[in-house]
Amino acid sequence: MVIVSNVVVRKKHLGKTCKETVRCEVCRSSEHPSALHSDPRVPIPQRAHEGENDHATDATVFNKCTKICKVPGYTSKSCAKIVLVRVYPHGQRHHCRVLYCMIGDQSNRSLAVSKFFDAFGEHGKETEYVLSSCAGRFNVTGRRASGYVVESLDGSCALKLPNLIECNDIPNNREEIPSPAAARNFPHLKGIASSIPGLNEQADKELLIGPDLITAHNVLEQRIGKDDLPYGQRLPLGWVVIGNVCLGKVHGPDIVNVNKTAVLSNGRPTLMRNCENKIYVDMDPVFKKTEHDEKPGLSIEDQRFLDIMDAGFQKTQEGQWMAPLPFRENRMSLPNNKEAALRRARSFDAGIQRNAEKRQHVVDFMQKLFDNNHAETAPDLVEGSEYWYLPLFGVYHPKKPESIRIVFDSSARFLNVSLNDVMLKEPDLSNSLLGILLRFRKEAVTVTMDVEQMFYNFKVTPEHRNFLRFLWHENNDPDRPLTDYQMTVHVFGNSPSPSVATYGLRKAVESASADVKDLVINNFYVDDGLLSCTSEEEAVSLVHRTKYALSEGGALRLHKFTSNRRAVLDSFDQSDLAKNLKDLDFGTASLPLQRSPGLLWDTDADIFLFKVSSEEKPYTKRGVLSVINSIYDPIGFAQPVIIKGKLLLRNMMSSPEKSDWDDPLPEALFQDWKSWVRSLTALENLRVPRQYSSLSFKNATRRKVHIYADASKEAIAAVAFLQLFGEIPNTCTSSFLIGKAKVTPTSGHTIPRL
Question: Whole-model pTM?
């Protein structure tokens, strides 16, 4: 294939082809140029060849511009057939892009630059073609694209583009773009000035339409002036101005090339560019420590997510925060998955119809969604719009069998794509749970709290709710037919939802006091907050101010309060307390056990406990691993016990007999395994004080951390102890801080190296 294009490849003036003898204009030597002459006091005469200064002999320079605006740079210099258009895939107008298009008859095929192909996700195979221009014929490779529509800016004309070929040699001179200012300065063009759009700084020249789309070249109307004046043409895609609009050629380009002689620090002139780098001696420390040193840096996707949140987070009239779904750039369009979602909906419906109790739990959950305006009846779909249906499934918490949580399955795939695939991965905005628990042990007075319906507090922008459609029964009646609904809030199941909620939670306290911000930003793990204070008054004040700040800053409700001090609990309304504390007489009744993320906490005695599951698991890889992982121990109180179970698992896994996850394990280790499992019940007798010591961490005069570590052929372990010193001389306490243990790798490491 041969493509004849109006692309001009310039032939540069090279030193090896220059026949001019370059001499120093001071001493006439051919061994160095004038700028390298050793005596800078002698002025260097100017001389040029190839006619650069043929017209620069007059002493006086006149600038004269006729028929123009008298303001340099105000308008175009020389206009061509270039129009601002919309381009989009056929049937997907909502994915349109605005760009400049050149209407050219010197190229026999329509071309587009790489930016066009990348923006629309065209990543097909490159094919070879021949590009013929003034500089000769060249073999070039490029992608192909088809199925696109070009539309005039006012929407009056839409043309189907022919097959496009990738070519990056389309001229991109923005001075050739017609502007309203160019038309207004000519009497015969004033009438069309309002029909020409102003210069769009965000749009590039990405498309060249050749004679293979002849309709785009039709001249529907023409405005012609006197000789040498530009003229206007109305093409199907819009008005263009053709010709030089700056007759005196006063209006130069925005970029000016200047040859400059620089002077070095020793006074010597040079034509070479001075080096911008300099050596400075900084007496400050080379390695400066900051609070971010131990944190991983943001990835490109993480920064993109934060940019979307910064730009899209806004408040509704009700005071709630609203945020968009964080879609990837240049993502693929989602297909119509309604039929697949309908099959899932019927399967889910059949499951709850067989279980009356589960059915009622689901109905109750869905009713809360509708009552709180978290879901609404979906509007009719607009033809050509993009949408997605989310299948539903129910999950029971092992410790809350009386209620169900409905999960919106954003990972459900259809035609090898899911909603989570086209959204950015969530950045890790959550705090370290281990860090929160360690800070929770610092002081004598503690409070735990929870944000009510964390995800559902943040609305989704209306234009993105079409991606959160789901099928459920009319009027929440399982006996009625399925119909279309859509969520109005960020849902449990979308991978970015936890980060959206964490971002919004912190956004709500931006204008709060420093201690409130510290509690919310540093001591919340998603929706669970843990606080440790030196006094009851400090705890009550801080929690109530935080509750008010979240309510005012984002209509967020802080509730489910628990504390190890009854006076603190008395300061809250009964409706705001944890479920098992409501209607409890704090004067006489003992406080029930609580869970502060994962750990069992006896608030009366202020100690941590362990509760071992009595459920018997099968003697398989899956069953053994389930028992080991059922002991939740983030701080490391029970590591000496858990490590023995991990060693047994390693020995089971290293058996020469290959087995699947549900196959029985070797009988030789069964008795050792049963003995270890029976020993776990002794963990229930373990009592660990919640507070490090009777001394306040905040008021301690000195603090020390002592770390011990060891390794063997079986395991690696490390433990840290905290030592606090009080104001009274020789007052000192030591307490367990944290412990870790892991199984030694089977090969590749020596014990000293471990």
Answer: 0.60
